[in-house]
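Quick one, probably user error.
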């Protein structure tokens, strides 16, 4: 528990710093985070005997993130994102030269890495430029993380105190419905608090954001648990002492970030 607390403290400081220290720090930090998370995903999948194209996947993942981030800095046309396609689809050609009984499993999991890891981080990064396409604003990404952490903390505390009815025992035996609604309540409470500080959106928009984070953040946790159980693995990695790997810490973000971005974009624009 001491190790977990120390890791959580320093990791929280780093996370907050990455958001508050400006757009370039924000971009570089989440580029590195997305690449490391993708590397962790491919390493995890490799335990099952499948061999995704890790090197091509990581290069393509970094390029996808940089191209998406570059839209805000360099202001080029969205059509230039198509330049990622040749690199992404080179996995088919590379697989032709490998001797493997399940070539399309290797190809499929390479693509799954982009969809499951890289694209959600791109959407989270885009939250920083949602208020203005060309100017960074830390309000939405910071609010996202605070609501996500509030949901996790509330779910844990309410689950320990009142948890009786299992939420999804097959994939996560410790989660309960009481914890789920407790996390949602805590997240909405934080959202209303933030609405007094971040006044660019009304309180109901922040509350809606909190509800989506509570629901899809929990689903993200369950999906990652499903992945680890299918591979008979306890943690996705060992980068964070006492917490496991990056995927263990960002499982909620991976499903929630694209949904929250879509919600805010549709509501605000």
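Nope, works fine. Designed sequence:
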């Amino acid at each position: 528990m001491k190790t977990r607390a120390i890791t959580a403290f320093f990791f929280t400081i780093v996370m907050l710093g990455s958001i508050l220290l400006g757009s370039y720090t924000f971009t570089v930090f989440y580029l590195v985070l997305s690449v490391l998370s993708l590397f962790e995903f491919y390493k995890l999948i490799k335990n099952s005997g499948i061999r995704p194209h890790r090197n091509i996947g990581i290069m393509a993942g970094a390029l996808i993130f940089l191209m998406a981030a570059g839209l805000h800095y360099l202001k080029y046309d969205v059509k230039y994102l198509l330049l990622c396609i040749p690199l992404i689809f080179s996995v088919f050609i590379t697989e032709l030269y490998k001797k493997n009984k399940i070539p399309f499993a290797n190809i499929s999991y390479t693509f799954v890495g982009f969809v499951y890891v890289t694209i959600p981080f791109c959407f989270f990064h885009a939250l920083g430029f949602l208020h203005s396409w060309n100017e960074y604003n830390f309000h939405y990404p910071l609010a996202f993380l605070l609501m996500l952490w509030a949901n996790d903390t509330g779910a844990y505390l309410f689950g320990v105190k009142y948890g009786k009815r299992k939420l999804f025992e097959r994939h996560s035996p410790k989660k309960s419905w009481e914890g789920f609604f407790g996390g949602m309540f805590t997240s909405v409470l934080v959202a209303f608090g933030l609405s007094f500080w971040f006044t660019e959106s009304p309180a109901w928009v922040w509350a809606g954001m909190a509800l989506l984070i509570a629901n899809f953040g929990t689903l993200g946790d369950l999906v990652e648990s499903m992945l680890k159980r299918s591979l008979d693995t306890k943690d996705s990695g060992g980068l964070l002492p006492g917490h496991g790997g990056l995927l263990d810490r960002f499982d909620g973000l991976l499903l929630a970030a694209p949904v929250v971005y879509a919600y805010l974009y549709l509501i605000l624009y």
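The chain has a mean pLDDT of 90.
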